[in-house]
Amino acid sequence: MNVSIKQLRGFIAIAETGSFAEASERLYISQPALSIAIGKLEDTVGGLLFNRSTRSVQLTPEGLEFLPIAQRLIADWSEAFDDLNRLFSLKRGKLTVAAMPSFASTRLPAIVAEYQQQFPNITIAVQDIVMEQAIDAVQTGRADLGITFEPDNLQGQQFESLFTDRFVAVIPMSHALSGRTKIQFRQLLNDTLIVLNRGSSTRRWTDQLIQKTGVLRMPLLEAFQLTTVGAMVAAGVGVAVVPALCQQQMESLGAYCCDISGDTIERRVGVLSNRRYPLSTAATQMLALLRGIPAHK
């Protein structure tokens, strides 16, 4: 059934004014054009909606029953386009960002604060989850944007680099190397190396760096969270290598951080989006803010 919004508005105007002439003036169309539109509407629905006479126009019983339905349809139509306009003008909407904890707890809060100041009516959901889960959230459409290290396999996603993060050494304050500005990764292998659990990208990159040194066996201690890694190092359990993004967090836990000279881990940090779905206006504005963050802080 092909009924136009013009026909519905014409029907409502005639019903409310009781006159084709007054309705045509309200709608800024000619009376013949309005008559043709209503005639086509009646042909489409299969019966008369108005009883017409030379003196008056009255709704038929069917027209009287249809009037509130038509009024609701027009209201829903207008509301739908008002909502769409508010989405494009960022007067309402929702944005979900999945970010690895090392970014979510350091760089992201300032970005979110600036975003809220510019677009106070957008609801923001931040998922601070491990890199692998953030990648999955974007891939499955549960997050609009993901902020992670560059994945080894993009799996149909798009990655835009923001900056490069160089991993740093984390050692106890009481360690013999504490106080140095740079050390070599090999120097850490004399101690227990505290690493993230197998299956994480950070663990895989750490294992690759160990292999490059040629050291076949060394004591390892596994943890599931970088916070635990830092706390273990601060307690003197061992040493670690972590993203420079986490340096402030490691130091707040009581560990000492310094740069690694020579071989280390360097990975690009950036924004993931799903190639299959265009970004919403809300997500596009968040991406614009993320592009402006400095490489080091």
UniProtKB/TrEMBL annotation:
GO terms for cellular component: cytosol. Pfam families: HTH_1, LysR_substrate. It comes from marine gamma proteobacterium HTCC2143. Residues 1-60 form the HTH lysR-type domain. Belongs to the LysR transcriptional regulatory family. The keyword DNA-binding applies. Keywords: DNA-binding, Transcription, Transcription regulation. One of its GO terms (molecular function) is DNA binding. This is Probable transcriptional regulator. InterPro entries: HTH-type_LysR_regulators (IPR050950), LysR_HTH_N (IPR000847), LysR_subst-bd (IPR005119), WH-like_DNA-bd_sf (IPR036388), WH_DNA-bd_sf (IPR036390).
